[in-house]
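User: Fold this; tokens only.

Assistant: Input:
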Amino acid sequence: MPSRILVCAVMLATAATGCGRTAPSTNEAASAPSFDAWSDTFTKDWLRDTPQAATRTQYFSGDEQNTLDGQLSLVGEWGTIFGAGTATKRAALARGGLDELQRIPAESMTPQQRTSAALLRWALDETVASAEFATHSYVFDQFNGLHLDLVNHLTQTHPIRQRQDIENYLARLAAVAPLIDQGLGEARASVAAGIVAPRFILERTIDQIDGFLRAAPRTNVYVSTLAERIGTLGGAIVPADRDTFVAAAEKTTAEGVIPAYRRVRDFLAEQLPKATDDAGVWRLPRGDAFYAQALRAFTTTSLTADEIHAIGLREVARLEGEMDTILRQLGYTSGTVNARYAQLEAALQPKGTGDPRPGILADNEKWVRDAEQRAALLFDLRPKAPVVVRREPAFSEKTAAAHYTNPAPDGSRPGVFWLPLPGPPYSILRRRSLTYHEAVPGHHFQQALQQEMTDLPRFRSRGVIGAGSAFIEGWALYAERLADENGWYEGDPHGRLGYLNSMLFRARRLVVDTGIHAKRWTRQQAIDYGINAQEVERYVVWPGQACAYMIGQLRIAELRDKAQAGLGERFQIKEFHNLVLRTGDVPLDVLGREVDAWVASQ
């Protein structure tokens, strides 16, 4: 979910009042619930409206969890809100939560509770603020669209452990077409408000849906993955029942799902005559205000587009200088850094006629296991849940980025590093650094560990309400930096060059994202700056998010350096990592306050 930082989120630890709010009276304070009791009740209400998130987190138990596991809504499993109607409803719930939170005096809270309250206040304030621009987000696009969110949730996150899970899957599958139609209604409202995606985004999404529609119902991703996953249950489901379940999924897909996706395609095609190739949100009504809010949301800072653009230019220059040195050492001396890197990448492409993808996956698995051993020198805290590497499903492979999904809280699913391999060509140089980012010590260490922490409130440990990209992606990029700082690429100049290019990629994102949305860059200008077309199109439909990585990483490293300067010889890297990981997903300023308090306590 997009997030926005407000001053009151940071001040909550020292003030009993929120921003612009009146302090509660003595009688009100006396009648206020405890923070833990209130936050538990509020979080459950928040989740009951988001069944996909309830499934992802397995937050409830018994009949209530089972009921939610059979439902769908226009809020994705990670909080993505599809449409203004849904956003308005969520904002009303957030305002109620803010009013209730205001009744709980800050002085009655423990330090942990104050941090939790700061996070909640910030997230709920952001929900209210983002609702103002809900029509600006595209309901159907090639990267975050509702049609993709549903596929990913049902085929990857929805559990298949027993017969009831299969029945819930079929209930959800039957709800896909009605939900798609609701999404179409929201999308039409956005178009009426003047929000139309760029032509190239419409064309890319149409092409994606065409690929979905080409498959026969029996081989459709909704059906084929269900059949495959039932097969993993062995004798728990007899063959006759398996055939019945798969036939039911095939019938629902043929009669409901496929026609609904065809309606989405027709809707997108209707927009082509009125679309332009202007890429940035500056072209939309109140586009500048929307982008400023998006930057606050994703970076959890007050940095402006101009400031972020300048940081990006600075980091690009620094990183290109380091890469130039290594490229020259490897014999690549002529041309731009981009051109020489591309030459080396081409030279390292797999040779021969066999499919290289099993070997690429095996390499990433090997690096995960190696990183787990090396991490012992840097971390006391490590998750109990395992992590594995899997190839991204074919349906979304062409447009997907590498990503991580949490292990199931009940242990039925490991953490998964999903690796798209649509090539050739393949990204060879960055593979190792990507492993550290998505798995160990990156997303898997942070997200799986947070999920396992018993001393955090459940809404934080399960990631129900959090700050999002700046902390989560900042940590993953910091993990890449940590590997380099500690010599993990020793003897592997190709791997280190890939790491530097990974960092350069994130620095260029700062320049390109702000360039597209604030400085009126074209799609081609962004590509010419060194970002491939697929990535550029991701930034076009997800403004601001690409800025979170580098801003988060720089802030975490800055806090580490500040703590080291303050503690001198008493500074221990494991203890710093313990603090950051135990704090979990919070706005960057809240993390800064936690680090300052830790240094003072030493």
